[in-house]
Design brief:
The chain has 652 residues and is α/β, with parallel strands linked by helices. Among the domains are: 11-52, Monooxygenase (Up-down Bundle), CATH 1.20.1280; 545-652, Leucine-rich repeat, LRR (right-handed beta-alpha superhelix). It contains 27 helices and 25 strands. It starts with a helix and ends with a strand. Residues 1-8, 447-488 and 490-499 have low confidence and may be disordered. The chain binds 2-acetamido-2-deoxy-beta-D-glucopyranose (NAG) (4 copies). The site of one 2-acetamido-2-deoxy-beta-D-glucopyranose (NAG) has 3 residues, from loops.
Length: 652
């Protein structure tokens, strides 16, 4: 019966179309999709051109996708991601249909996990006359023979269609050679973005000929840096983004690209380029000072010298990733956060970073910071003092905070986050083992008798702690202890100071509390109440029960993904209470919830019609027959993870 009053929505009033369209304009896309299902007039309003400008459709190649493509022909413009295409006739006719129905309307095309033939792609490309983005990543089938676009006639047709192409993704291609690369890029003279991530590029030495690359003109066996550089030189006028991630690009090669005359890159991605050194970064920064986005994650040779070079040389920097660059220390971070344009900083898995210099840098600043995203996963030296200070300094701007596996972060940090970061949209506290109910509830941990003594106290003590931040002292009680159960009495107090509980983060869309193993129903039932929350992870919380599940479902009705794996107390009873409130759920993980049985599956089939993935592996009471049955009942279900008792793993 719970919540049934909220369930029965009143009939949608008859409003003029323009008004409906105007109202729908205020909703985010996912909510608009829901709203379009209310009734026919809302559906029609949702089809208004202003909402249809740039929609991406993602589907596997199948007989039913033919119908879908024909239907899309009515749109003004769209993007497609088609997976699992192969060399057979169904795939050929699908691509043909895309060309016929969507041709000049297609904005972007990606064919991941496919193996299409040259012929079927050549039948399609000449029709895509206003394509902006083409993603051929991993399409080895196209380049293996080396014959793709070898005919002048084909090149002419493709060139006349793709001359406006801005973005070309050629990552993870094993068989790309100078010859095929030049034939293809010869058809795309105005590229803005080019990705060659994970390609086998011969940077300085030709392993086949045993001589330095560059002495041979154009190779049909491999892609040489010299040849890539030639393209960069030809297209400097438009080229602003390059991706050489996961290649063995050397210092000299990077320098030769960075020095191309007239090249002014805005984005450069060099993930896991292990040959690069501090000196490479210094040279890069000197020649490409207009870089805005720089990804140097996994460049394990880099040290704080690179950080200093970036801080001093890149005045327009907005996004920087240094994750997994484990040599990086505090040095240089003060200067880095002083770069006034910086919006996103990723220092995940830089275990030597403790935050002090960032705090120094941010407090030194006179103009407002713009930092919106801060990723500090597995930074073990980050402590409450740093989090407290950072939250105060970033209160107005921060939207994403990742403190996953920050072992030294405790309840005090959680309270600071709740008190200062009211604009937070994404919060990850996964695996912060010291975090307890007290932290989420925004309460100072006290025993019952202490609470009585302090009854006269004016206002929450917590607020006073903020007053003298400079002399921040940890609380009296050691946090190593197991939390005492929060009583009703505590909750009463909590209600009067709710501003400091996690409830204050009204805008949260993603919350990850996995493996914060001290959390119990006491906090989860009280604070996980976010109307806009879409992604929630509560896995590996051995204490939580059905009470948490049912309260979360009642208060977070926008959830699209929910992870409850390894929550042993969750049972069919909880699912029965939750499922009716979660019609938008698309991804549910119940693996290793041993008290879940077939009953739950029937409930999901009845209420959660949008489910796309379901994990019930290691649920010993779930039967294969029921899994089969609900597969036939849920139209969108793509993936069920189901493990038999014997340990055989079945993905259906
Ligand atoms: C379409 O959407 C994609 C991704 O959401 C974006 O990168 C692209 O710039 C958009 N294109 C247009 C024409 O707005
Ligand atoms: C906390 O920080 C200290 C150093 O201050 C470090 O030695 C320790 O490993 C960190 N993690 C834990 C769980 O204490
Ligand atoms: C929560 O965080 C863990 C660890 O980073 C990650 O494996 C998991 O996918 C996250 N859950 C969600 C729903 O994002
Ligand atoms: C699972 O359910 C059984 C009874 O059906 C109960 O005895 C047991 O405690 C439950 N296990 C957990 C971990 O809640």
């Amino acid at each position: 019966m719970e919540g049934s009053d909220e369930e029965d929505s009143p009939e949608a009033p008859e409003l003029p179309l323009e008004i409906l369209v105007y109202m729908l304009g205020f909703l985010p896309t996912s909510d608009r999709k829901e709203a379009s299902l209310v009734c026919r007039s809302w559906y029609i309003a949702s089809l208004d051109l202003r909402f249809q400008k740039n929609v991406t459709f993602c589907f596997p190649a199948s007989a039913s996708s033919l119908e879908l493509v024909r239907g899309l022909g009515r749109r003004s413009r769209c993007s497609l991601i088609i997976s699992q295409l192969d060399g057979f006739s169904l795939s050929r006719s699908l691509l043909m249909e895309v060309g016929l129905c969507l041709g000049p309307k297609l904005d972007s095309l990606a064919l991941p996990g496919s193996s299409v033939s040259e012929a079927s792609l050549l039948a399609l490309l000449p029709r895509l006359t206003s394509l902006r983005r083409l993603d051929l990543r991993g399409l080895d089938s196209l380049f293996m023979s080396g014959a793709f676009l070898s005919k002048e006639e084909h090149r002419r047709q493709v060139r006349s269609a793709l001359s406006g192409l801005e973005e070309l993704d050629l990552s993870n291609l094993r068989y790309l050679s100078d010859l095929t690369f030049n034939r293809l890029t010869g058809c795309t003279p105005r590229l803005r973005r080019l990705s060659l991530a994970g390609c086998h590029i011969a940077f300085e030495f030709d392993p086949y000929r045993g001589c330095p690359v560059g002495t041979v003109e154009v190779s049909s066996a491999l892609l040489s840096l010299r040849n890539v550089r030639k393209l960069v030189t030809e297209q400097t006028a438009t080229l602003v983004a390059l991706d050489f991630s996961r290649t063995s690009i050397t210092h000299e090669s990077l320098r030769s690209i960075a020095q191309v005359k007239g090249l002014a890159l805005e984005e450069l991605c060099l993930q896991s380029c292990k040959e690069l050194t501090d000196y490479s970064v210094a040279v890069l920064v000197k020649h490409q000072s207009s870089l805005q986005r720089l990804d140097l994650s996994g460049c394990t040779e880099l040290t704080s010298r690179a950080v200093l070079a970036i801080a001093q040389g890149l005045n327009s920097l907005t996004h920087l990733s240094l994750s997994c660059d484990w040599r990086i220390t505090e040095t240089g971070l003060e200067d880095l956060v002083s770069v006034s344009s910086l919006k996103s900083l990723d220092l995940s898995e830089c275990p030597l970073v403790g935050g002090t210099e960032m705090v120094n840098g941010l407090s030194r600043r006179t103009e407002r910071t713009q930092l919106e995203k801060l990723h500090l996963r597995s930074c073990m030296y980050i402590r409450d003092e740093a989090v407290f200070s950072l939250t105060q300094l970033l209160g107005n701007t921060l939207r994403h905070l990742d403190l996953t596996s920050c072992a030294n972060v405790t309840d005090l940090s959680v309270r600071a986050i709740a008190s200062y970061l009211h604009g937070l949209v994404v919060l990850r506290l996964c695996d912060c083992k010291e975090v307890t109910d007290w932290g989420l509830l925004g309460m100072v941990e006290t025993s019952a008798c202490e609470l009585d003594e302090e009854k006269e106290d004016q206002g929450p003590r917590f607020t006073r702690t903020f007053g003298n931040m400079g002399f921040f002292k940890p609380p009296r009680l050691p946090f190593q202890e197991r939390p005492k159960m929060v009583t009703q009495d505590h909750l009463e107090r909590f209600k009067q100071q709710s501003g400091a509980s996690l409830l204050a983060l009204r805008r949260l869309r993603e919350l990850n509390l996995s493996a914060c193993c001290k959390l119990t129903d006491s906090s989860i039932t009280q604070v996980v109440r976010y109307p806009d929350l879409q992604h929630l992870s509560l896995s590996m919380l051995p204490e939580i029960t059905d009470a948490s599940l049912s309260d979360v479902a009642r208060h977070c009705r926008s959830l699209t993904s929910l992870d409850l794996s390894y929550c042993a107390h969750i049972s069919d009873h909880g699912v029965a209470q939750a499922a009716p409130h979660l019609p938008r759920l698309q991804h549910l993980d119940l693996s290793a919830c041993n008290n879940i049985t077939d009953k739950s599956l029937f409930l999901l089939a009845q209420h959660c019609k949008r489910l796309k993935t379901l994990d019930v592996s290691m649920c010993n009471s779930v039967s294969g027959t029921t899994v089969d049955l609900i597969q036939s009942q849920l139209p969108f279900l793509e993936n069920v993870h189901y493990k038999l008792h014997s340990g055989t793993d079945l993905t259906l």
